[in-house]
Amino acid sequence: MATEISPQTTSPSAPETAVDSANGIPKTVPKPRLYLEPLTTEKHLEAFHELWTYEETLIWFPFPVKKDVSESREFLEKILPNEENPDIEKFALMLFPTGSQAQGEGEGQKGEMVGFVGTNRYKEQGMEVGYVINRRYWGMGYATEGLRLFLDMYWELPQRKYINRLVGKTSPGNVASQNILVKCGARKGETLKDATERWVDGGRKSDLICWFLDRPGLREENIGDGRMEREREARRVVLERIEEGGKGSE
């Protein structure tokens, strides 16, 4: 089930300064520009549809642009938590209503959805995490800020305490997405051969690089209290449940 979370809010009069703990000197820090909101068909369908209307966005995906809103609705319903895939979260990335920067061309309107972020599915490498930013907002740091915001929230979810790492997967040529993951603390893992397809290449197979995002304070080689083993067992149970569900739908 998706977790209901109240949007993080910032007072319009909140100060934009913090104190440097080393010398006590105030320093300017940016206000957060985004907050998370559970992604739904009722509120976010139009903005969600726009994400899939830019060919530049879809060069790394196995499908082309969505033809209409009804096609996007069907896709959105498939990627939200459901009976076959209940252990995931999906959140819209929303601009704060008060804003934290001057609104200019390409910067969107206050309170607007600029993309989404969330977990996708269990695979052998772990729970997958992904994000998509509207083409109009590329180059503004929203993907990095949004992924960090999601990770901070995700590691605090009681029902996800058994998960010690997430995995982002990128095509070898998707350097921009790789940089986002590295900025968020990801470490490079294995390369999966011929693991996906790209519609721009006529469905030709493409590799995927795994990027692991560890729970803060935990690394697999340093865990000695059984938590990684519990994660593996939980992953096995979920994968078995998914396989059983697939058999029932054949």
Describe this structure in words.
InterPro entries: Acyl_CoA_acyltransferase (IPR016181), GNAT_dom (IPR000182), N-acetyltransferase (IPR051531). Residues 1-14 have a biased composition (Polar residues). It comes from Cadophora malorum. This protein is α+β, with helices and mostly antiparallel strands and 250 residues long. It contains five helices and nine strands, in the order E-E-E-H-H-E-E-E-H-E-H-E-E-H. A seven-stranded mixed sheet has the order 3-4-5-6-7-9-8, sandwiched between helices. Strands 1-2 form a two-stranded antiparallel sheet. Strand 8 (187-198) and strand 9 form a beta hairpin. Helix 1 packs across helix 2 (69-79). The longest helix has 22 residues, at 227-248.
Keyword list:
5 helices; 250 residues; alpha+beta; single chain; 7-stranded mixed β-sheet; globular
What layout of secondary structure does this protein have?
Blueprint: E1 17-19, E2 26-28, E3 34-38, H1 41-51, H2 69-79, E4 90-95, E5 113-123, E6 126-133, H3 142-154, E7 165-170, H4 175-183, E8 187-198, E9 204-214, H5 227-248
Parallel strand pairs: 6-7
Antiparallel strand pairs: 1-2, 3-4, 4-5, 5-6, 7-9, 8-9
Helix pairs in contact: 1-2
